[in-house]
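Many introductory courses stop at the sequence. We go one step further.
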Amino acid sequence: MEKTVNSVTAEAIAELAQVRKAIKDLQEQESALRDSVIVGMGDSSVAVFRGQQIARLTSVTRVTVDSKKLQEQYPEAFEATKRESTSPRLTLV
């Protein structure tokens, strides 16, 4: 279903596209800087500059569930524990 939108909505869509691009660029920059810091810290867990701690590197363990494998091997458990939600997805074209 299509709808012709007004100029305010069209401008908001254009601005949203710019914001999404800026976020993507910033995320790429963040990743590169993070990698650089980790390399610079070497085997150390704390970065110190001029006598002050400025960064810490710690390990975090995260447990995830392979839902596809769970569904294949234990369908009853999957059905009993699954949660579904629906939310709008906005795709800019």
